[in-house]
Sequence to fold (313 residues):
Amino acid sequence: MITIQTQGEKGLIPAEGVSKNCWIDARNVSKEDLYRLEHEFGIAGELLTDIMDADEQARIEKEDEYTALIVRVPVYDGETEVSFFTLPLGIVLFSDKIVTICQRSSESLEDLAKNRIRGFSIRNKSTFVLNLLGRAAFTFLKSLKELNKRTNIIKEELQRSIKNNELIQLLSIQKSLVYFTTSITTNELLLEKLQKSSLIRFKEDERELLEDVVTENKQAIEMANIYSSILTGTMDAFASVISNNLNIVMKRLTIVSIVLMIPTLIYSFFGMNVRLPFEGTPLASWGIVIVSLLASAMGAILLNRERKPRKAT
Fold:
């Protein structure tokens, strides 16, 4: 879907057609949208293919008619296996318009389109890029906090009952953190290139904004690394707990098997074709049962005493 907006007095307003200093926002693009972007707006097909590639890394390149940037932005989709992931967002800067292209709708773009950023304007292209990069870094931070909150909830559920479902959810969060760490790192490389490159010229106040964006992006990287390390340690700890619980269950089953084997052994001796004591006694069978139970009880007591740790002297 392609929407066009222009700058109004109180923010962005919808426009019917392309005009000077307009913003062409293409999200959830179809084949028809890609055809229109290539033939009507003059964007190279190779660049569109790169933007549609989910694994494309952040970069900046200069063409004759425009300057193109590709950044990674976080996306949320509750219907997929991994709810939080990242996608490439293309920013194409023409002399008279700005075009953004993304496979899906992102909160970063939605905040700009819904005038949620104070003082946001599309008339200055360099400021537009910085606002979008800053919003992407802010969305990364917000998503990381949500992932950490979900991790804490799942850990509480695991402490009560260890199930495969909770472990699968932790694995999904770990995948999201890997996606975030990789994407934020590539965005950092892009920001470093913007600081050194002359492809986009920034004013003095814009360079201060660029520094703020770099700081937020570094904070996002640190948070992603910290949360990833904590989650890895948590999953290792729960794996050890599961293994320990399995060992305890196997020990109990072994004790039960040994205890049940004692009466079986006694009955096996009495079942041999030999002369037995107390053959003529009416209560002989009950005597054998009582002896078997006493032997089993003694075996259980002895095995239980062996399991208890000895106190250090």
In short: The mean pLDDT is 84. Helices lie at 31-39, 45-52, 107-113, 125-160, 164-196, 204-270, 284-307. The first helix runs from residue 31 to 39. The radius of gyration is 34 Å.
